[in-house]
Amino acid sequence: MSMGWTIAGTFGQLLLAGLLFMAVVFSAGGVPPARLQLAVLNVSMFVLPALCVLSAGVVAYMHAHGGGASSYWWYAMPLAAALPCVVYVLALGHRSGTG
């Protein structure tokens, strides 16, 4: 594992955390208020950025303890978690007639 790629990936994950937070906040603002939908979006608002920070921490830990290049796959964890959230928000927007 290269130190440069680990730092660049960690920096990218921290940027992605802010982007996902803003995306969930603004998508929740466009959804008609319903208790369950807002609860899911409120949880996503904190879980998705936390997964970015967690994945960056896991890769940094693996780098410090001699992990291989396959450790970079941890950077994909927040993207895999964001995909269902995006599909959910699109489905809510389509169902409410705003999408």
Throw out a few tags for this protein.
99 residues, mainly alpha, 3 helices, 78% helix, 0% strand, elongated
Concise structural overview:
78% of the residues lie in helices and 0% in strands. The protein contains three helices and no strands.
Outline the structure in words.
The chain has one domain. The chain is elongated, with a radius of gyration of 16 Å. With 99 residues, the chain is mainly alpha-helical. α1 runs parallel beside α3 and α2 packs antiparallel against α3. The protein contains 3 helices and no strands.
Number of domain units: 1
* Count of helical regions: 3
Low-confidence stretches: none
Instruction: Tell me, briefly, the overall form.
Output: elongated
Structural class based on helices, strands and sheet pairing: mainly alpha
Element pattern in H and E: HHH
Strand content: under 5%
Residues in helices, as a percent range: over 70%
Distance between the termini: 43 Å
Say how many strands there are.
Answer: 0
Taking the sheet with the most strands, its summary is: none
Please compute the radius of gyration using only Cα atoms: 16 Å
The residue-averaged pLDDT reads 89
